[in-house]
UniProtKB/TrEMBL annotation:
The keyword Membrane applies. Its main location: membrane. It catalyses: ATP + protein L-histidine = ADP + protein N-phospho-L-histidine. It is found in: Cell membrane. It is a multi-pass membrane protein. It is an enzyme of class 2 (transferase). This is histidine kinase. Pfam families: HAMP, HATPase_c, HisKA. Residues 80-132 form the HAMP domain. The chain crosses the membrane at residues 12-34, 54-78. Keywords: ATP-binding, Cell membrane, Kinase, Membrane, Nucleotide-binding, Phosphoprotein, Transferase, Transmembrane, Transmembrane helix, Two-component regulatory system.
Length: 366
């Protein structure tokens, strides 16, 4: 019966429609059986005459037929409409209780149970994404704390050594005034370095709480604003800026956080100008639901051992002793791109020079 109903595409009916249909079919079947039972009772009367057992038997048969019809309808309705989706939901709940989100559930039906299974699958996928995001955040936080602790060891070790040195020799007056001033100056530099690290950690903590406010803006005004910002940044360096974009996508409205995009772009430009020999190139592309900014330079590019470390906080390559560059630019870009449902990619151009691409997810209004 169930196979016949499926062939008739009755599986697409809602629960109420299916229940009414089964009631009608059950009623037709029960009436047919009762008609046969009445015919049987009439036959028995003709054969045996008026007896006391025919009428009670007929009533009992009718009641059993009605009861059997109701039970059969309930069993068929359960097997047809409820059994499989309930089993899927129970199995999915067991997976989630076991912290296993790497599964999929689907139920090909247009009724309310199909919608419930689809909603459960959406909830599972969203929960999986949230847990993966939380896991990445925890791992990045561990990595950040480890890097921060590592960078603090050097200035703390230097300060400790100088403090012990002064405590040992200063009371004995074995140090000249010039030597003491030199040590104090060095210690002061390392204290400034510690303050700089503390300020950097505070700014990183604030990045986690930065909200994303998307506003629709056309591509041409957005790129014009970015190019104006790039001209101001590169104007002081004496280097040249070359900007380009895909003309086919200029009529698209981008739902992006302009301030966040600008902040990422400024960091990319500052990083490219630092290493460029004479020219910085900027390319804007819109494809597959993302706004992409690629900034390249004609400098030496990223060393192979630096490519996978460039986005780490406080990483400066060969510039570990620089007090002005704290190695946070690309890390900030990565965090902000992730918050904007995008990503950051670091690489080198085939002809040489570094290349950094920022992706920003957005909604498109054509």
């Amino acid at each position: 019966m169930a196979k016949l109903l499926n062939r008739l595409l009755l599986k697409r009916l809602t629960l109420l429609q299916a229940f009414i249909l089964l009631c009608v079919l059950t009623l037709i079947g029960v009436l047919a059986v009762i008609t046969m039972e009445f015919a049987w009772a009439e036959y028995m009367k003709k054969r045996f005459g008026e007896t006391d057992w025919v009428l009670p038997s007929l009533v009992a048969a009718v009641l059993l037929t009605v009861a059997a019809g109701i039970v059969a309808m309930a069993i068929l309705f359960y097997k047809w409409k409820l059994q499989r989706p309930l089993a899927l939901l129970k199995q999915a709940s067991e997976h989630i209780s076991a912290n296993n989100l790497g599964f999929r559930i689907s139920y090909d039906s247009g009724d309310e149970m199909g919608e419930l299974v689809a909603a459960f699958e959406n909830m599972r996928s969203q929960l999986e994404r949230n847990i993966m995001t939380l896991w990445r955040s925890v791992e990045e936080r561990k990595q950040l704390n480890a890097i921060f602790a590592h960078d603090l060891r050097t200035p703390l070790s230097v300060l400790k050594g100088y403090a012990e040195f002064l405590a040992t020799y200063l009371p004995e007056k074995k140090l000249s005034e010039e030597k003491v001033l030199e040590l104090v100056h060095t210690m002061s530099q390392h204290i400034v370095r510690l303050e700089s690290y503390a300020e950097a950690m505070s700014s990183i903590q604030k990045l986690e709480d930065v909200p994303v406010h998307r506003r629709p803006i056309e591509m041409i005004p957005l790129t014009a604003m970015l190019n104006e910002c790039a001209e101001q940044i590169i104007g002081q360096s004496g280097k040249r800026l070359v900007s380009s974009m895909e003309e086919a996508n200029t009529a698209i409205n981008l739902n992006v956080d302009t301030y966040l995009v600008m902040q990422v772009f400024e960091n990319l430009m500052a990083n490219a100008i630092r290493y460029a020999a004479a020219q910085v190139n900027v390319r804007y592309v819109v494809q597959e639901g993302s706004f992409t900014i690629t900034v390249t330079d004609d400098g030496p590019g990223f060393p192979d051992e630096t490519l996978h470390k460039a986005v780490l906080p406080f990483y400066r390559g060969e510039m570990w002793d620089s007090s002005e560059h704290r190695g946070l630019g690309l890390y900030i870009c990565k965090v902000l791109c992730d918050k904007h449902e995008g990503s950051l990619q670091v690489g080198n151009q085939p002809q040489g020079g570094g290349s950094v691409t920022a992706h920003f997810g957005f909604g498109v209004d054509k």
